[in-house]
UniProtKB/TrEMBL annotation:
Subcellular location: Secreted
Classification lineage: Eukaryota, Viridiplantae, Streptophyta, Embryophyta, Tracheophyta
This protein's record includes keyword NADP: no
Domain of life: Eukaryota
Catalytic activity: a phosphate monoester + H2O = an alcohol + phosphate
Designated name of the protein: Purple acid phosphatase
Naturally occurring in which organism (per UniProt): Paspalum notatum var. saurae
């Protein structure tokens, strides 16, 4: 009798395990394998869609040149894709005027992985992730508001940050369909991100969102993200006392290496004051030169108030990053190794 009961308990436990969805399954995933030599080359640009104005066209041209030279695999956008209020529907001519007709270089005819910014949210936010937009331009991959691009050597976690910002919820222009209520949306997002970061086996983990956590150019750091998102991104360095190939300690990280955002119209590299996290802003896709500088408690390694974009080239062990201006000059570059 007791044995039967025990067996029943054991069987139920197994059933529960089998029924529980795999952690991190909630974010849709795109597989984008690296090149045959194991490397990956990517550009990141943000805050761009202004029908070519404010030097959007010059930035696009240099992205094409650098993209060609690096043989890029894809482009990441950090949001505020279409000014001032996103698109009205998937056939809104603004989409072609801001995207298709601007990023015309051969090297940029690759997938673009998209997050939305607050300006995309004050239009029809669902239109940018409607699959019919792919019929207008097949590059425009916004498969969900948050999703993961698995590239083997790097996992990119694209995160929807607009709902975090409290004062937007007082503005009736925001399209919260599929988002409201805020608290449940954010709790789910953070839980899914935590699971996905923990499960990721990729040597590099890069989180991409629209709003900065820490920033020295205007509008500056966001307290909502500092409180809610930052703890999830901060590397939880666990020292395991397991001898591995002669090493006394193996260090395992469940956090992110890097957070890349837009929103602030500048190019910027910040190192976190209390974690290995690097905080990068690539928000120079069009209008810039705001001249608004802010305080941040973290260390500002580089700040440029003008237009431009960033590049990354990674393999399993090494990563090289650079910021470019409208003339294609390298303004700042740095390397990281694993
Ligand atoms: C565009 O770039 C040129 C060249 O750097 C610069 O002189 C000009 O001020 C920029 N225009 C705007 C609107 O930022
Ligand atoms: C799509 O949006 C554009 C721009 O607002 C508008 O002119 C057009 O009528 C809309 N099309 C549909 C099918 O709603
Ligand atoms: C939103 O509006 C309410 C009512 O006007 C106000 O009390 C509150 O402070 C506002 N919240 C934010 C975050 O702006
Ligand atoms: C940004 O960080 C600085 C320095 O800690 C702080 O004084 C400021 O209030 C922060 N701004 C925001 C918007 O959180």
């Amino acid at each position: 009798m007791a044995a039967h009961l025990l067996l029943l308990v054991a069987v139920s436990a197994v059933a529960v395990l089998l029924l529980a969805p795999p952690a991190g399954a909630a974010f849709p995933r795109v597989q984008h394998p690296p090149k045959a030599d194991g490397s990956l080359a990517v550009l990141a640009v943000g805050d761009w869609g202004r029908r070519g104005q404010f030097n959007q066209t010059l930035v696009a041209k240099q992205m094409g040149v650098v993209g060609q030279r690096m043989d890029i695999d894809f482009v990441l956008t950090t949001g505020d894709n279409i000014y001032d209020d996103g698109i009205a529907n998937t056939s809104d001519p603004l989409f072609k005027e801001c995207f298709t007709n601007i990023y015309t270089a051969q090297s940029l005819q690759k997938p673009w992985y998209i997050v939305l910014g607050n300006h995309d949210y004050t239009g029809n936010a669902l239109a940018q992730q409607d699959p019919t937009i792919l019929k207008v331009d097949s590059r425009y991959n916004a498969i969900a508001k948050s999703f993961i691009v698995n590239s083997g050597i790097v996992d990119f976690f694209l995160i929807d940050t607009t709902p975090f910002i409290l004062h937007y919820w007082n503005n009736s222009k925001f399209d919260w369909r599929g988002v409201a209520p805020r608290d449940a949306y954010i709790a789910n997002l953070l839980q899914d991100l935590k699971h996905a970061l923990t499960e990721s086996k990729a040597p590099w983990k890069i989180v991409v969102g629209h709003h900065p956590i820490s920033s020295a150019c205007g509008p500056g750091n966001n307290t909502e993200l500092q409180e809610l998102l930052l703890p999830v991104l901060k590397a939880l360095f666990v020292t395991l006392n397991i001898p591995m190939h002669g090493d006394a300690n193996a260090i395992q990280s469940h956090g992110a290496d890097m957070y890349v955002n837009g929103h602030d119209h500048c190019l910027q590299r910040i190192t976190s004051r209390d974690s290995p996290l690097q905080l990068l802003t690539s928000g120079g896709g069009s209008k810039a030169w705001a001249g608004k500088f802010k305080a941040t408690p973290d260390k500002v390694e580089f700040l440029y108030d003008g237009q431009g974009f960033m590049s990354m080239r990674l393999n399993k062990k090494e990563a090289h990053f650079a910021f470019f201006d409208v003339a294609g000059n390298v303004l700042h570059c740095w390397d990281l190794t694993k």
